[in-house]
Amino acid sequence: MIRRLLLPLIVTLLIGACSTSPTGRHQLMLVSPSQAVQASEKAYPEKLKEYAAKGKLNNKPRMLARVKRITGRLIAQAIRMYPESRNWQWEVVLIDDPEVVNAWCMAGGKMAVYSGLIEKIQPTDDELAQVMAHEISHALANHVAEQMSVAMASQLGLAVLSATALHDSRYRSAALTGAALAATLAIQLPYSRAAEAEADRIGIEIAARAGYDPNAAASLWRKMEQVSKDSPPELLNTHPSAANRQRTLSELAPKMMKYYHPDELHPVYPLD
Fold it and tell me: Per-residue pLDDT for 6 more than 70?
């Protein structure tokens, strides 16, 4: 009886929790963007704590300065394009792990780059900007909130199937607790193909407006493909085929050239 009553309620919640992404795509939003930001603010220091204890956080000043300079230019343009992100507490750290080729951005602009991305890929500034702009775009398009919402929907579905869950407060409250953990998992699990394509589209424009060559997006993924021949980098484990990515970005690049003015003075968001 309880399951029969709960199922229509869940369906109603799922239908009523639809939102629209910046590109017009429908998104499931059981978790609001503001809730995702709050959860990420708690998750971010927890995720970095282990690296800090080992002295692997921000211990390469020249590399960190380069990351901050490039990311600062991207953030300035992201705020222009998405004014609601102006109040985010933007932050980026460098994690010293030469074996990890990865970068990520939580909701609210909490970012990290692994030294392995720079040391193994050897990206130009234009290419590194494409990586960071893509990750920033996941946050701008509320993909973290979307990932958390999918996880919550899964939990609710399991609750319907499990009679035990209906009588155990630990399960009933599962969807409402552990938000910080969900925010961490959201950046570790693969985004959908639609979300990845969306981040590509938004990211390449942000980078172009910040003065970074749109053609670098395809050349970055050529390098990624070369590095992945022996063992796929972590970044590739959560992203679609490098070859497909190159083709799509090559087609997008000419459309972005109207935003690309490398000789102009570009503002830099202060990352302290």
Answer: no
The β-bridge relationship of strands 91-95 and 103-106 is: unpaired
Query: Does the pLDDT of residue 153 top 70, yes or no?
Result: no
Examine the residue annotation and report whether 135 is marked as an active-site residue of this protein. yes
State both tokens at 138. Answer: 């996941």
Instruction: Pick the closest to residue 96 from 129, 53, 131 (CA basis).
Output: 53
Torsion of CA 238, 240, 246, 247, to 10 degrees: -160
Q: Which of 91, 108, 87 is nearest to 40 (CA)?
A: 108
User: pLDDT tens across 115-131, in order?
Assistant: 999 999 999 999 999 99
Query: Out of 135, 146, 196, 205, which one is annotated catalytic?
Result: 135
Residue 136 phi/psi, 5° resolution? Answer: -60, -40
**What is d(CA 136, CA 91) in angstroms, rounded to the nearest whole number?**
11
Greater confidence, 8 or 265? Answer: 265
Residue of 215, 208, 218 lying closest to 260 (CA atoms): 208
Contacts of 46 by beta carbon, 8 Å cutoff, 6+ apart: 180, 184
